[in-house]
Design goal:
FAD/NAD(P)-binding domain; about 475 residues; globular; Enolase-like, domain 1; alpha/beta; 3 domains
Length: about 475
């Protein structure tokens, strides 16, 4: 006999937890199925542990370089186990918010097990058949492992193992130069590892503005991180306890290899074919309402292969919740999706790149670029590398923004708010506290008027005549 629910959620990561929590508080009958533990990649292997390790590494970097401010210390002695111990403490502090006890307290029936669909309207787990008005698949993703000869035999790390290390690898090769590879590469380097990044593209962080990515790359090189670019890992061998990674003409000898070469959706065990759910190359196929090819089944988060960020999964979960519990009328809108890479300097983005904007709008594109060197607070903190770049149309419509520099991940939100509310770039030019880093936005916002005035000869002539006339009458 099947158990009936208003909604059954499969996967207890960021998206699934948002749906489960909100649905239960709206008094729906909710079941949440998870095969491992609640919290998903973000809590255990992603956002939380990576930012904790990054913080520890930044402290090490500041101590090591304190002499630039006239503060002299001995070279820092890094106890790597305590650094990763800090990571585990942070996870433990946040874990109760995602605990089964909390969700059961909200009224969610939490079921642990590895289940599958047996037809278009039934999910089976632990021998129990679950039926619902709507299902939500939020099973997330896992690291993609490239088919490099010898890699499996040599052994490697992914983000699922790296935060459990208690001994620092003397040397570390990282396959992949996306956000995970870059964040962890710099963190391990600052904590004392010799780091080599194998990058198959022409630039690191290939989804970012090339000029912004170069600022990060230059900092990496200055810190002693070796970047092989463009280069592909071709094979791995083990000799005398060391791992030899061959990339083109280069031979990289390291203690450990970290693979950060993309993600794949977790769908294999769900028997989605029986449910009438189609899976594409990137993940489960969904429409604008986040319905799968079976309209009673929704999907959100990494498993649909779109923007793979915790905050996007949370946003998609709200769309799913509205459609699954009430009426399927809400559509996901990805016009304003921000993200940040938490390297030092940080790199944050929202909207279009300059190249994308020019492809779409032709000559009606203005690039407003303000270096952090022109922001007094950045000068005071010796954090002048980088810039704020806002892409607009001539009418002031903000098309995108790219910030690379101190606290870029925080500063981007002022621009996100403006874009979300369809405000013109002039809205950023209001009063900002002095001296703050946020002046990078207001100073950039002013540049549109300056550029348009420089282009307008008739305005310049008119003002010149006006001031000549004023001087003549006094």
């Amino acid at each position: 006999m099947a158990i009936e629910y208003d909604i059954v959620i499969i996967g207890g990561g960021s998206g699934g937890l948002v749906v489960a929590s909100a649905a239960a508080q709206l008094k729906a009958k909710v079941a949440l199925v998870e095969r491992d533990r609640l919290g998903g990649d973000c809590l255990w292997y992603g956002c939380v542990p990576s930012k904790s390790l990054i913080h520890a590494s930044r402290v090490a970097y500041e101590v090591k370089n304190a002499s630039r401010f006239g503060i002299h210390t001995n070279p820092p002695e890094i106890e790597f186990a305590k650094a990763t111990g800090h990571v585990q403490k942070v996870i433990k502090a946040i874990e109760p918010h995602d605990s089964p006890e909390r969700f059961r307290g909200l009224g969610v029936e939490v079921i642990f097990g590895d289940g599958k669909f047996i037809d278009r309207a039934t999910f089976e787990v632990n021998g129990c058949k679950l039926k619902a008005r709507a299902f939500v698949i939020s099973t997330g993703s896992r690291p993609a492992i490239p088919p490099i000869p010898g890699l499996k035999e040599a052994g490697f790390l992914t983000n699922e193992q790296v935060f459990s290390l208690t001994e620092r690898p003397h040397s570390l090769a990282i396959i992949g130069a996306g956000p995970i590879g870059c964040e962890l590469g710099q963190a391990f380097s600052r904590l004392g590892s010799e780091v080599t990044i194998i990058n198959s593209r022409d630039q690191i962080l290939p989804k970012e503005d090339p000029e912004a990515a170069k600022v990060v790359q230059d900092q990496f090189i200055a810190e002693g991180i070796q970047i092989l670019s463009p280069s592909r890992a071709e094979r791995v061998e083990v000799k005398d306890g060391k791992k030899y990674l061959f990339a083109g003409k280069k031979e990289v000898i390291v203690d450990e290899i970290l693979v950060s070469a993309g993600r794949v959706p977790n769908v294999e065990s769900l028997n989605l074919e029986a449910a009438g759910v189609v899976v594409g190359k990137k993940g489960i196929q969904v429409n604008e309402k986040l319905q799968t090819t079976n309209p009673k089944i929704y999907a959100c988060g990494d498993v649909i292969g779109g923007y793979q960020f915790t905050h996007v999964a949370g946003y998609e979960a709200v769309v799913v919740l509205t459609n699954a519990l009430f009426f399927p009328v809400s559509k996901a809108n990805y016009r304003v999706i921000p993200w940040a890479t938490f390297t030092d300097p940080e790199l944050a983005r929202v909207g279009l790149t300059e190249a994308q904007a020019r492809e779409r709008y032709g000559e009606d594109v203005y690039v407003l670029k303000q270096p952090f060197a022109g922001v007094d607070r950045a000068q005071a903190e010796a954090a002048t590398h980088g810039f704020g770049k806002i892409i607009t149309r001539g009418n002031g419509e903000i098309l995108g923004a790219h910030l690379v520099g101190p606290s870029a991940g925080e500063l981007i939100h002022e621009i996100v708010l403006a874009m979300s509310n369809k405000l013109k770039v002039s809205a950023l030019t209001g009063i900002h506290i002095y001296p703050t880093l946020s002046e990078v936005n207001s100073k950039a916002g002013l540049l549109l008027k300056k550029q348009k005035f420089a282009e307008s000869q008739w305005q310049q002539n008119l003002l010149e005549k006006f001031f000549n006339w004023r001087r003549s009458i006094f």
